[in-house]
Amino acid sequence: MKKFLSLLVAVMMMATVLAGCGGKTTEKPADTQAPTQTDTQAPAAQAPAATGAELTFTTGGSSGTYFAFGSVLAGQVSSSTGTKVTAVEGKGSQGNIELMDMEGAQLGFVQSDVMSYAYEGTNLFADFGKVDCFSTVAALYMEQVQIVTCDPAIKTVADLKGKNVSIGDSGSGVYYNAIDVLGAYGLTEEDINPTYQGFGDSAEALKDGKIDAAFVVAGAPTTAVTELSSSKDTYLVSLDKEHIDALIAKSPYYSEYTIPAGTYSGMTEDTTTVAVGAVVIARNDVAEEDVYNFCAGVFDNIDAITAVHAKGGELNLDFATSVTSVPYHPGAAKYFAEQGITVPTK
Known about the structure:
Elements (H helix, E strand, L loop, with lengths): L1 H20 L32 E5 L6 H16 L3 E5 L3 H10 L5 E5 H9 L13 E16 L14 E3 L6 H12 L8 E3 L3 H9 L5 E6 L4 H7 L5 E2 L4 H10 L4 E5 L11 E13 L4 H12 L2 H5 L10 H4 L9 H9 L8
Parallel strand pairs: 1-2, 1-3, 5-6, 5-7
Antiparallel strand pairs: 3-10, 4-7, 4-8, 4-10, 9-10
Helix pairs in contact: 2-9, 5-8, 6-7, 9-12
């Protein structure tokens, strides 16, 4: 019996040693060890480390793309890496940056223009002051300036003169986008009857006939506009090339963009507009491994993300690494370096 027990203990100790040699990774089945790279999928990086960290990711209102897509990204990162990310509703770009400055969140969605304002202490942040506690994680997709109306007589920006128009929450990124677009057409805030509402409230006001048009700056299709178009004839107002070129010349963070027909119910023609980038940022003090995990969780799983949300189809490494106004976080730089791309860091 003693010999048997001694032999059993030796076997158990040997099994423990062998298990320890395997490190933190578990061997995958043969058919999943070497995923095939697609046009958008990043080549597999090293296995993301299990850090045990829990990060709060502020997005936007529940009727916008930030929250819907951000929730998908958070779930994918949490399920495929050792970092847990929880997406929560936020107040949009400016609010997310201010909350991050107060250490209320570790990750956040922001518009590329608002991110630059914060880092430079201009426009929205002229009174608040410069905020540079954050770094770029990745640019994910373009956010279109959508001018939404239920009035078929409103065909150009010039037609907004004298109308009741929602131009976003006061002081928001949407507000400044609306002022920029109106200005390109020689209009000011005084030339319209402005209201200051978020996407959901603007959609409800359009549905009830309380306003004539609304500026919505978010990735199309946007939940609030989709729901509006399913219950009432809805139109998007196009910008013409002359005014787009003038706007971009003055504010180069805009890009021309075409929203294709069929994006919303009853939308029979393409809409030409401008767009800014939707970027994820992180506090500088977030661990390198956790930001690395966020990037790996997203860009190693583009196909899985696209299967859940259409915006996944816009994810690609070239756009992700295109930000120049704010340096990248070291964790993001490490991940992108493994993909053969160098990004600017502090």
